[in-house]
Design brief:
With 362 residues, the chain is α/β, with parallel strands linked by helices. The chain is 26% helix and 24% strand.
């Protein structure tokens, strides 16, 4: 019988880490830290690590991989399983990485005599995946971070074969939202068209969202698109993983030729700048006094020391996790005896599908 211990990520946004034990053996699903000043780690101990046969990593964001050095410090020497693309994105390479190739999608991959898995694309980031894991006689589904309607990235689910999962761990990151990403992209485009003389600045991160927005606006506006040097590697990854993409290869080639090359200055360009580099944002705003900053996610008042006037910014929320309707649909497609909803302060270990259906937590 499976014993699931939540080491982080449930009832909070960050440090995703799930310890699942069965017959004296264990696996770990992700191993992240909180995106806060202290990089708070999961509640991982040597006792946990001593039982772990394998670690499954869904993608390269810090809240899913930031505690991998801690894992090694605690003595772990087993396989750390992830996609080839995720391994390339890690800022700190792992000693015991075991990657799988794109052509293995949908196949059962054996870890040891009690553990095997399948994987598929989750649409959150280039290289991000979900896992279907067979652990002795029990079967587990882990969504990782999941985006149903990325503009560029595929999002799949396991083939429906009658499996009833013993445990499903499902992303509920935007449970309080009801959003259609394509509609948001269209609204952004309309807003940009309505402000023709104003440069547009998107504070951005290494994410599927950044690539989605940049390529969509390249396709649907006539403005120059400029991507900061620190974000260029994201677009290089898209070139390396065409199997992870929807039918947009030609668009991406055009985007790279026209937007990532150094070009002459444009008065009303669309800029994608690292969201955590306030100095770069300040410099660009000082040089572009009529610029409008567009925020596309959760934003706290204390995120930036600078203050924006009402005419200086606009909010458009673009999903990087499932919203309420997506979560309901995922829960209905993934038949499980027990479902754990993670990645939100609005859900906890006691949250049930019935509560979600009745909208009791929102």
């Amino acid at each position: 019988m499976l014993n699931v211990e939540i080491l982080g990520g449930v009832g909070e946004y960050g440090r995703n880490c799930f310890f699942i034990e069965n017959n004296g053996h264990a696996i770990l699903l992700d191993c992240g830290v909180m995106n806060n000043r202290h990089n708070t780690p999961p509640n991982l101990t040597r006792a946990h690590v001593a039982k772990v046969d394998a670690v499954f990593i869904s993608h390269s964001h810090t809240d899913h991989v930031g505690a991998l050095p801690l894992l090694e410090t605690l003595g772990y020497t087993g396989p750390i399983i992830m996609s080839e693309m995720t391994a390339q994105q890690l800022k700190q390479p792992c000693k015991h990485t075991r990657t799988f190739k794109p052509e293995s999608i949908g196949k059962w991959l054996v870890v040891n005599n009690c553990l095997a898995f399948q994987w598929g694309y989750s649409g959150h980031l280039i290289g991000s995946v979900w896992y279907k894991i067979r652990f002795f006689e029990e079967v587990i589904f882990y969504s990782g971070d999941y985006v149903v309607d990325s503009f560029l990235l595929k999002a799949e689910l396991p083939i429906e074969d009658g499996t009833v999962y013993d445990v499903a761990i499902i992303d509920s990151g935007h449970v309080e939202k009801r959003i259609n990403n394509l509609e948001v992209l269209q609204q952004m485009t309309e807003y940009i068209h309505a402000n023709p003389s104003c440069p547009i600045i998107f504070p951005s991160s290494f994410s599927g969202k950044t690539a989605d927005i940049a390529t969509y606006l390249f396709q649907h506006t006539t403005r120059a698109v400029r991507v900061d040097h620190d974000l260029l590697s994201l677009f290089d990854n898209y070139d390396k993983a065409p199997e992870n993409l929807l039918a947009t290869k030609t668009l991406l080639q055009q985007f790279k030729l026209e937007c990532l090359a150094k070009k002459t200055e444009s008065e009303n360009a669309i800029y994608f700048m690292p969201e955590r580099d306030e100095a770069k944002l300040m410099e660009l705003l000082n040089n572009k006094s009529t610029a409008i900053v567009i925020f596309t996610g959760y934003r706290n008042k204390g995120d930036y020391k600078m203050r924006f006037s009402k005419n200086q910014y606009k909010d458009f929320f673009y999903k990087t996790h499932p919203d309420y309707h997506d979560i309901i649909a995922l829960s209905q497609k993934i038949h499980a005896h027990k479902t754990i909803y993670f990645h939100s302060s609005l859900t906890n270990s006691e949250t049930t599908f019935l509560q979600l259906l009745k909208e009791e937590i929102i």
